[in-house]
Amino acid sequence: MLGSVSLCQDKKGSEEHMIEEQSCCCSFCPENSEFACSICPAGGFNTTIALPNSADRSSTISFLKISIICLVLALLASVCSYKKKKLCFKRSDGPDNDEMELAETGNLILQGGNTESTMVNPNPDGSSSGQGEAELVVSTISREIRLGSLVGKGRYGIVYKGTWSGKDVAAKIFDSRDAESWKRETEIYSTTLINHANILHYIAQDNKDAGIALELWLITDYHERGSLFDYLKGNTVSIADALLLAHTACAGIEHLHKEINGTQGKPQIAHRDIKSKNILVKSDGECAVADFGLAVVFDSQKQLIDLPKGTSEKFLVGTKRYMPPELLSNNFRDEDFMSFRRADIYSLSLVLWEIASRTQLYEGHIPAAYKLPYEDDVSAEPTLQAMELIVCQQKMRPAFPSTDEIAASPGLKSWERLCKVIAECWTEEPTWRLSALKMKKGLSHEYNEVRPQPQ
Ligand SMILES: Nc1ncnc2c1ncn2[C@@H]1O[C@H](COP(=O)(O)OP(=O)(O)O)[C@@H](O)[C@H]1O
Ligand SMILES: [Mg+2]
């Protein structure tokens, strides 16, 4: 090997040469030449000592060769193991490089004991109406979502529009104090196979350490038109649009209420907080039922009603304005699951009334401005007593616009049938109310009578 570089000067100290130190005195500054190396002893090195002999040189070269081969082998091995690891993540998390990196992070967190697992619906595009079972995928979806504008705020969650994997999603973020609501809602979505065209489509759940507090996330499809409440406040609807909204809202509730047996089955579920703010309007004009934070599940085998934990009031929950008379008057028969379903039907009838009251009944008709049910009769935040007084004692119900003066117009009969269905569903006696199935069938028949015919 060559030595370090040193300087040779002529003996008068003027000319300088850069030379190899070990060859200095042997080749460049021979004894008695006019050059002398600054580090060479006077008289130069003994060349036979300074230079390695040929045997030493060949053993050094062999050592070098082996070292280089080992280095190359080690390098190859580490490249192979990295590629294999990458391939594993690719298989579980898709083709995107960013996703792979995030999956790796998730894995490390998992091993570190701070599990941030995510339930991801295997059918996140929402294309299928079949019941897909959610699978546990180690991921941190909350970190993969780019949050945009705030689109809604309810009792428990703040809802943002977000982008994930190139598509719009809704991210409902719960405070850790509302963990029970998040737990119940995600349980309903991820374990009870409620995939249906008229139920908000679930994508995933996650939790995120946001510094001082833990954020609980629920990720679903995003619906640009927002809640039915927002939609009806800003728009009037044709009779056909009204019947489409009405029959698809009933279809969502009917799916929720019914039990389906078999491996792809589901138990009976009651919503317990049906109102226009908890129903979304899809871009195709159909409804999607949302917000399952108070839902109850019925285990028909064990005849057990599984109530959400943590609610101080077991049965008197939901939104007072939409509560049925039997709950307001303390006559609710909680031992029978049908009571929960019938309570939902009363609330649903008020939602259908909201739709009916914003319907344009003939050309040139301007429906009255949007109003909540009982808006003129109670305050914005009514008490239970105030609701009990008007609903149970005064037996008041919202009024329909009069059609007495209206000449027969296409679809008016169907709209009147919608009003009849509504009136049958808000009766005081719960057993007289229609089932969600009957509502759905009757209203989808009316929709077919008035729907625009394909050209
Ligand atoms: N998927 C969604 N797409 C668009 N808007 C939504 C979506 N989910 C909820 N929102 C809006 O956010 C509001 C609150 O959502 P919700 O699930 O009812 O929360 P909370 O449990 O707090 O009541 C809704 O009334 C609606 O306006
Ligand atoms: Mg809500």
TrEMBL record:
InterPro entries: Kinase-like_dom_sf, Prot_kinase_dom, Protein_kinase_ATP_BS, Ser/Thr_kinase_AS, TGFB_receptor
Organism in which the protein naturally occurs: Oikopleura dioica
Family, per entry: Belongs to the protein kinase superfamily. TKL Ser/Thr protein kinase family. TGFB receptor subfamily.
PROSITE patterns, sorted: PROTEIN_KINASE_ATP (PS00107), PROTEIN_KINASE_DOM (PS50011), PROTEIN_KINASE_ST (PS00108)
Spans through the membrane: 61-82
Pfam families given in the database record: Pkinase (PF00069)
Primary localization: membrane
Protein name in the entry: receptor protein serine/threonine kinase
Protein kinase domain segment(s): 145-448
SUPFAM superfamilies on file: Protein kinase-like (PK-like)
Subcellular location: Membrane
Family matches, as Gene3D superfamilies: Phosphorylase Kinase, domain 1, Transferase(Phosphotransferase) domain 1
Coiled-coil stretches: none
